[in-house]
Automatic annotation (TrEMBL):
Its EC number is 1.4.4.2. Residues 23-393 form the Glycine cleavage system P-protein N-terminal domain. It comes from Candidatus Copromonas faecavium (nom. illeg.). GO terms for molecular function: glycine dehydrogenase (decarboxylating) activity. The keyword Oxidoreductase applies. Gene3D superfamilies: Aspartate Aminotransferase, domain 1, Type I PLP-dependent aspartate aminotransferase-like (Major domain). SUPFAM superfamilies: PLP-dependent transferases. The lineage of its organism: Bacteria, Bacillati, Bacillota, Clostridia, Lachnospirales. It holds the Pfam family GDC-P. This is Aminomethyl-transferring glycine dehydrogenase subunit GcvPA. Keywords: Oxidoreductase. GO terms for biological process: nucleoside metabolic process.
Amino acid sequence: MGYKGGIFMSRQQVYPYMPNSAPANRQQMMDVLNVSEIKELYQDIIPEDLQLHEQLHLPKPIQDEYTLSKHIEKLLGQNVSCERNISFLGAGCYRHLVPAVCDEIAGRAEFLTAYCGDTYSDHGKMQAIFEYQSMMGELLNLDVVSYTTYDAGQAVCSALRMALRLGAEQGRTELLLPSTMNPEILSQAREYCKCSGTIRLVGHEPETGRLNQQELKAMLSEKTAAVFIENPSYLGFFEEEAEKIGELAHASGAIFIVCPEVASLGILKSPADYGADIVCGDIQPLGIGMHYGGGCAGFIAVRDKPEYIRAIPTYLYGIAKTEHENEFGWGRALNERCSHGSRERANEYFGTESGLWAIVAGVYLGLMGPKGMEELGEQIMRKTDYAIRILSQIPGLRVNPLGGHPFQEFIVNYDFAGKTVKEMNDFLLEYGIFGGKDLSSDFPWLGQSALFCISELTSMEEIQYLYELLKKASGEGAR
């Protein structure tokens, strides 16, 4: 589609699955644009030295839809999925139950779009998102919940940027983060906040992994904008003195930000109950599939304080009475806050791509109810405890070396067995098991350790099967 010898195919071919590939259609568009060759569209955009002036060595194109479909199915068939294997892998993307109604609602035409419609034409979608915000507010025990962010990483980064904006007049530019936090989110935060603040890592207690409070006290100052923790942490343990950490942050005038695991909030205190000013995190566990790690969305929640609400960078949906009695409508509140309203003057950007997942999470929360969320948390906690107890019986393994009662994820160390995580995971995969996330590069102080994940879908039989294989691998050596 283009000039001979250029970066496009010289042979004109019409493909039924490729819009506007017919030569007449293409010529009509070129006439409107007043160009005679396709390359004219790129000569002012792509520098000459970056243009490829030779044919790409590509396989022959598939010209019919059926053959293309079979080809794609063959490629997808190479995927090693959790449907055909047992997964103990989490570390940010989790295999939870996705009720059939969640997928049904997600596929409905009125919701299945990355775009959020106009105030006057999209009341159904706005009501659905408002209901999601309301149920999340109940789960978090907070007053205001944002429209979804792209993922938990952006939610955390936006919360940190909020703290920097709120503390800007006082010259607060430092953010204190735990050294044991999710390394991917930490990487995002370093990039996201580098122009407006400085990230400093607070050390941990070597025996428990928990935040070193003495070090935190020494690092807190009039420059501190926020103290951030994960609870439970990326490594599975709880910050049991989270309330004290919040008190230390507040005593220095800093904002206390907490990232919880939403699946745990049916049985555990909300961060708001132990002093969090901003709560942020991931909603993927709420009825959203793993989608190769791409089906994600995050949330930000605050108390009913005007300065905090105005600092939220995403949409907020509100409910209001109309001129008709007993009739309500929905719309965006304080629209000038966000990049959609402020454009180039905005402090931050956001997109509507993840809005569909807000609706799905709302469906999930409505289906589960408070009792269902409580049962979810209890089941995960009980199975996690069982897995730790049974795996601890294997000679050579150090299971849950940081102690406590982890929620959903825990560490298994292979040092005393003389094995690497890769060896053990390769061995497990031969038997249809995805082993834990390798922590050896991100947390070298943990040695050859893996982060194992348990969900409500993990059966006792699967845990027993894992026990038998780890016992065999640690005793006989991974092949």
